[in-house]
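Run: sequence + 6-diazenyl-5-OXO-L-norleucine -> complex structure.
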Amino acid sequence: MPDVSSIPENERVYGLKGVLEHSFERTRHDASGALADYIPELAKADPDRFGIAMASVSGEVVGVGDVDLPFTIQSISKALAYCLALEALGRDKVLAHVGVEPSGDAFNAIVFDALSNRPFNPMVNAGAITVSGLLSEAFGAEAFEVVLDRFSAAAGRRLVMDETVFRSEAQTGHRNRGIAHLLKCAGALGADVDDAVDLYFRQCSILVTATDLAVMGATLANIGENPLTGSAAFAVEAVRNTLSVMFTCGMYDFAGNWAFDVGVPAKSGVGGGILGVVNRQLGIGTYSPRLDAKGNSVRGISAFRDLAEEMGLHVF
Ligand code: DON
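>> structure
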């Protein structure tokens, strides 16, 4: 039996779980950043929680730390709702309402593409509210159930919404209501303002774990089919289009840095989650609720940077 301690650290080969354990250890000490508090309920999270999970397209799932702790999906819902809209309404209809150009602006910026009067992309609030409007027009009163069904299919288990977070955001989300009214005025939003915003707040309040995010990521990596359940969650073309926009716009005004350092499509949420996709290989989910000034999870970014380096995940 070879003695492991005689093998130099940089020559040891670890399984996925071992790789995660090492990344977790290297990144868990950073206590910088702050909880989101503009939605009052989010400020109640335990700031120290941290989990990293990975799911492969062959169905292997591993995790370290708080990978089974539920938190609200928040903006990560934007990517999945966009995928659903592309599939349900077709690419041309969706593109007529929302662009695919990085804005370089904050997630809640009140700015549209001046030439087309459309939101720049579906990953910022203006674009996501427009997508929720399209879904609410297409599915009417069933819209949230349709969204929840698809998110659940991608996660491989029945998800639920956190009523308290939903109410907290519905009562305080004046900026998003303002954005929705401006979208209506610009002609980008066809749906009723209240319906669009209601669906947007609901989809943001769906509870997930880091493990769920990893499995959802693996479903996208597996071009729409959940590798654990074998069920089809999203159509192939919609997945390709969604991953493209996640790559260029998923991390808001940090998207350029992210593409440079990490190099995989990803989406973050102010609940503290990040979902990353290594095309045809892996989904990665992280949870740590302390955020940087741009609204991205501090330790989530560190963990992804570390894993990208360690595992050679960058697409280039
Ligand atoms: O629009 C909002 O304010 C939230 N419900 C979602 C924002 C979000 O997650 C931005 N992410 N970093």
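>> summary
The beta strands are 51-56, 61-65, 71-72, 207-208, 266-268, 273-278, 282-287. The first strand starts at residue 51 and ends at 56.
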